[in-house]
Specification:
The structure holds 2 protein chains of 2 kinds.
Chain A: H1 2-14, H2 17-35, H3 41-48, H4 57-82, H5 91-102, H6 106-139, H7 144-160, H8 166-180, E1 183-184, E2 191-192, H9 198-201, H10 206-224, H11 244-266, H12 271-286, H13 299-314, H14 316-322, H15 328-339, H16 348-351, H17 353-384, H18 389-408, H19 411-429, H20 435-458, H21 464-467, H22 469-496
Antiparallel strand pairs in A: 1-2
Helix pairs in contact in A: 1-17, 2-4, 2-17, 3-4, 3-10, 3-15, 3-18, 4-5, 4-6, 4-13, 4-15, 4-17, 5-6, 5-13, 6-11, 6-13, 6-14, 6-17, 7-8, 7-20, 7-22, 8-20, 10-18, 10-19, 11-12, 11-13, 12-13, 18-19
Chain B: H1 3-24, E1 28-29, E2 32-33, H2 37-57, H3 73-91, H4 93-107, H5 112-133
Antiparallel strand pairs in B: 1-2
Classes of the chains: A mainly alpha, B mainly alpha.
Amino acid sequence: MEIFHGVLYGFQVALQPINLLYCFAGVFIGTLVGVLPGLGPAAAIALLLPSTFAASPVSAIIMLAGIYYGAMYGGSTTSILMNIPGEAASVVTCLDGHAMARQGRAGAALGISAFGSFIAGTLSVVALTFLAPFLARVTLSFGPPEYFALMVLGLTLLTYFARESMVKALIMAAAGLLCGTVGQDVMSGRFRFAFGIRTLEDGLGLVPVIMGLFGVSEVLLNLEQREEATEIFAPPTTGLLPTRADWRASTLPILRGSALGFFLGILPGAGAIIASFVSYAVEKRASKHPERFGRGAIEGVAGPEAANNAAAGGAFIPLLTLGIPANAVMAILLGALMIHGLQPGPLLVKQAPDVFWGIITSMYIGNAMLLVLNLPLIPLWARLLQVPYAIMFPFILLFCLIGAYSVGNNVGDGLVMWVFGVVGYLLKKFDYEGAPLILAMVIGPMMEESLRQSLILSGGDFAVLVSRPISAAFILAAAVLLLLPLLRSRTAVPASS
Amino acid sequence: MPRDLVSGLFWLAVAIFAAVQGLSLNLGSLNRPGPGFFPFWGGVVLGVLSVVLIVRSFRPVAAGPRIRPESWKPLVVVGALLAYLVLLEPLGFVAVTFLFLLLLFRLEQRGWAFSAGSAAIGTLASYGLFQVWLRTQLPTGPFGF
């Protein structure tokens, strides 16, 4: 009953004209960001954060959230029509989506992506609706040791799923934790790593760091690649509605993708990219004809596209119930909530029910808007993709510059972005990923505080982390994840040599 | 020199720096950890990880892609970004943005007329979007804009 009231209340908030407008703006911008390669949702949300300062907290978060799941819809269009992922979570969609387009089935691929995304997005919001209030009640009993252990598990998961070496991902996480300590120490008031620079005394800003790592460095890398003439398939005007055979092939992958995506999305550190890869692997294994994969199997489009949308919904769970961001996008949303004077965590549902339920229900509306919007707008997106990169990148850079500056009207923030842009470029060159660094930087201060509080509580005894059952379970899971690759490599090396 | 050795040494340096800073910030005691506690132990963990990476970098592996930049364009862009930030407050948003866009359009071999026109339109459009519509406080230069 409590949930029923909550949902009803949420719709009252989300259906207010102003919030509908913000929701629409969010999903529209999100789709655009998803379609455009080289501009991801994290950088886009960071960019637009300052422009929401004047809005009410609910409207602001509704719009920023819309950008995130809107981008999941948009990414597939570019993957299918151009064989370039519009957004990182649509990488696998290229494989079969583009193959389908080459066979003249672009319409079916785009259609099943949109419907699959809608079904998965909606299912995952339903799960969020029921799970979030329940989990908020459970996590209310979490003390500093549980928080610390959970964040350790989150960071470990992220490094476990790293595509490059796990050691490098762990290095990124450790470096991120150190970045998080820059600025004034909350508990003692002392400045750390600030060197008397005013911008650093406030700590490294999340917006400039993200725009540097995910915006500027991305442009630098793209500039290096020789311009290739990419073929863009003319957007189909008919055949967007999947046929009955398409539905028969896609229904189970969509449902499996939804479940996988939702649960992987909840785990801090896993997220939409991994969900889409796992879903593709699962569908290939479940298929009676795995050889069709990569040659235009509709299951290979439906599953991953469902998974990345469901993951976007699942990612809200740790944010709304624990105040822990699951990925870089959630980290900015966390920042946005705090800027608007709200403390995300188990108390959010009590302290700001309008925000809590308003965000959740707005996602039902946003998903419906996206389904209606997306298919008719595909010709527009395809035209947009014909704009050459030479015209686009100066504006991406300019928007990053203005965005970083306008957070606090401070050139120093721009310089932070510049440094992280160069660092991000070098990291890619040396095969590092930026994601663990960002997540660690955001949760670093929370981890530090909960660790120091735990130690104060226990009188300096680290056993407090393993003597409480919930925190012990988290620590154990993290330890297993850390040791697993070691065991595997020890058994795998003799076999291969 | 193996690529992982280069980056491993870099992280080792960062780790030592962080640990030394942590020590000078006061570690506190275990039952009352001070401001240096987390940076110190973070530095120690980073140091251990970078040593692992350095040791592993000597194992023979298939050669990875080259590190050197494939083109000079990123360097120009990095320079342009820095120049933009340094000149933004002295010269004002409009002038700096126009020059910035002009340079970047020229970078991709667009003609002067096209570049200048696009840069002017882009400057006006972004001024309208951020200053007039979103009310961002963009810096004004000596010319009053």
